Amino acid sequence: MKYSFRGFMAPVFTAFTESMEVNYDIIPKYAEYLQKRGVNGVLINGTTGEGVSLNIDERKRVTQEWSWAVKTTKQSLMVQIGGTSMTNVIELAKHAESQNADALLCLPELFFKPKRCQDLVDYLKLVAKAAPNTPLLYYHIPSFTDVNLDMESFIEMACEEIPTFAGIKFTHTNLEEGARCVQIGKEKDVAIFLGADQLLSAATILGFDSAIATTLNMWPELLIDIQRNVNNGNTDKAMALQEKLTKRINQIIKHGSWVPTMKAVMNLSSEFDMGKPRPPLVPLTKLQIQTIATIFSK
Which annotated residues bind pyruvate (predicted)? Predict the structure, then answer.
């Protein structure tokens, strides 16, 4: 199935109130905030959005609210539907299609993990059947899922067997494998999204034209500049900007894991209060947040 979106897509945060309820009211202004800063696509219920920490009703409501919001901002909407039971994944796929999502993104089965590419393809066939009119992408993030199949082989097989297959989100540091995915993606006309913020410049040099990166929520102009400079042949400038981004990220994540630290940064650097992460993620202490805040005062 043809999926035309290419470029930068922000994996959005899910805002929580003090009582850890989802704050849906923030979504329209959040969408507008990203659109005004050059981010033309959003991924909801992903890792950054703590999708696997939401129940199925909350995930449906988040999808519905974002579907309404992007009608105004004209952003592309991708919905992550994996990370729960097979029956719930199918229900979420059907719901996302009913809400006119532009694409679905799906994790592998997280307990009965696929051991072969064919196992993964067979799993995604069931998902695709539930939403036959919506492009489906696979979420490759082995550091979380411990599913580390060869993505070039998987893409080739998925293109043959899954009618709605439209690409992958490649959240991995193995750029040799990533480059092979980009090549077969061009041959098969499927999207390959980079999911590793710290590798954007190198990945762009290798042919990645799209990314789903958490830091697009905070510093989209910086990532856009990195890509633009690579594409214009200004690799030295691009590498200097990448070093700036990577240094900033490393200064932040040494205070905690990815989602809690990035959520704290979003609270510090934007007009929005995203709240704390939902358990089992551990929020940062006040001292950690104050330490991170000094990064932005320099």
Answer: 48, 212
